[in-house]
């Protein structure tokens, strides 16, 4: 059975009811993220501690996400999102109680970050897989732009609001806000229905006929069978390997290089957020080039240039660094939005949980290694090296990607052949290419990632 959002009257009401609740939840999470990172910065002043915090929050996305995606395809996605939001709220509430008791410890913060990330792995896969069931196909790129805009708004409001709340209130108060916003996200899900497609593998077997582990393997098989997507995910892993450490070390860039404090950190993070909003609005209005991958590669070049600027400017040029983060933020939705839209448009609804989970897992797989070496390297040589090397690599990777046929022909499934849109018999590029050019396509990109 195929679910066509185009035929569902009033899709805007259903989708944006859920989307609005998630907006409140993202704001609460943004406040908590800023507050916890700043607490770790003040309590330890260690790049290694900050890197380990990001590593802790990344591990569930690498190792848990594939299984989460398989379960999302089997379970009711609406219930999955409610349970994930509830788990995140419970972990945050527990941390607030411990802080009120004076039991704050670095390892406790790590544990809560891990639990929140675990819930987020289920929630992200369920939300992305539900979007194609609620939104018409021709609107997917614009909705992706709106999602990126929302993230940008959170990045704008979160840092200064977090800094202000830290001065006016306690950390427990900020954690309590996150609990409230989590319940605001759950409320619309209690009344809005989401279609539940039947989970199948590429051979047509229903989920009940195979194990979860087989489901996970089938997801890997599907992604590997789509050469363009597989190479793009390898590129994403390379980007995250370099840029995630750079973002996690931003507080030390502010304190050690620019000689600033929470206000200056708020300016840099907010400039990224403003850029994301602008880029998301541009993508929502424009929709991108005819080839979505061309839009993404253009955005990747802009991200790289922005990070290079932030890394090379002298301590007196904080404004230039703000401009660099604005450029990188603006190009972020231009890079990510079209890729998500491709997956939502081409992958069958019953397979999307697994595919989106693998997108998360594979693109973040190299992040733990990056975080493990980022702290010691930054402590020894300074944090700016990550911005310069990471930004330059993004520019080079974008240029190389434009020369790889599997990437250029991403939406054609296999180079030289084209499928059709979501929901039709030949709409799954992964299937069409299972016996095709996978090894050739990956070998083309292997030395270039």
State the main characteristics.
449 residues; disordered C terminus; globular; disordered N terminus; Growth Hormone, Chain: A; 0% strand; mainly alpha
3D structure, described in words:
This protein is an all-alpha fold. The chain has one domain: MFS general substrate transporter like domains (Growth Hormone, Chain: A). The protein has helices at 11-44, 47-74, 77-100, 106-134, 140-168, 171-189, 212-224, 227-248, 250-257, 262-286, 292-312, 318-346, 352-364, 367-381, 384-401, 405-408, 429-432, 438-446. The two termini are 38 Å apart.
Short structural description:
By secondary structure, this protein is an all-alpha fold. The protein is 77% helix and 0% strand.
